[in-house]
Amino acid sequence: VVFRPSFLPKANYSQKQPLAVLSRTIMTTQPLETNLENCQLSEQVITPWDVQGTDEKGIDYDKLIKKFGSQKITPDMLERFTKVTGHQPHHFLRRGIVFSHRDFDHILTLKEQGKPFYLYTGRGPSSGSLHMGHCVPFMFTKWLQDVFDVPLVIQMTDDEKFLWKDLKLEEAHKLAYQNIKDIIAFGFNPEKTFIFCDLDYIPSCKDFYWNMIRIQKCVNFNQAQKIFGFDETSYIGKVAFPAIQAAPSFSTSFPHMFGNKKLSCLIPCAIDQDPYFRMTRDVAPRLNLPKPTLLHSTFLPALQGAQTKMSSSEVNSAVEVCDTPNQIKKKINKYAFSGGKTSVEEHREFGGDTSVDVSYKYLTFFEEDDAKLAKIKEDYESGAMLTGELKKILIEKLQGIVKEFQERRATVTDEVVEKFMSRVPKC
Fold this sequence. Notes:
The protein has 19 helices and 13 strands. By secondary structure, the protein is α/β, with parallel strands linked by helices.
């Protein structure tokens, strides 16, 4: 598992190339979490900009835990969660979709003690609509906000997408506002949720900008290069950006919400975003601020298979929240990778392989009923259920989710957006 810089070509992964990467060495005397080492490019690639697995089974998340130095979410932790919150764990937690953490015990302790903390998540607006992969962290964050009853900040990194994508600044800013309406449709509490675009908020908030500058002074170019793969061709804006994504981890970046209180922060995110926050956790003690806590989720795979994640850049790899029922049906039937056998007779005899079947993998994310999911798995693996029947179940499930989402999205007016983006104190 390595970080591959975005400037390296995706092709020919077999060619060995030296690459400095961010990792954690267990037997080390260095105090920082972002210990650095040299290694060579391997087949499994995880960066904030690219995800590539080694085979059709997808990403090896156990290797990621070991490499990144995070902690696996255990049954004991879930038992404590239930005891502290009075809620059963979300099915993402029960099924290992949210599989790893950094200091989540600390958040549970704060909850036990009745002490405040807040949530932080975000979105880089590279397209006009979210896809189902984007929905995963927002669905989970919505549930966390309901369970913990805490404030939430959502960062729209329109500046990042301008720097990394072939987008004009005005276009990136426009996409952010389109995405905000999608995000609001997940049902976040408007009294406790603040959504902001970097291009709007940073120029107008001294406290946020000052935190950015403080973070930037704590990380030299050599460290940033090794963490994120920057080189002499990288725009200076890219080199500076990690501090922008780090700043919302500190409550002092939001004086209208928290005043000068130094609150702990819980960040639900996909595992590819971890480099930003390992850097942030290294910086926090130097700024006399709390380290952010993280909950890591797995990736919703592309329709074509689990080697990579669903992406807006590949329209046929993704089911989008703006898709019609017929579009969803066509995409699943045509593109969803099957774990079924080559003939009906062979499938009836040997059954399907749920470890590679994309339709089944999607149902582990979106079918909340554990008993129903277990029955589907049993029938498919035994051969009693054919691939077409499994795809039909997924199609109906996604059509229902998207229909309900679109109905909520239709009620999100400009006035509703303004309320979520207002700096009126929310806690």
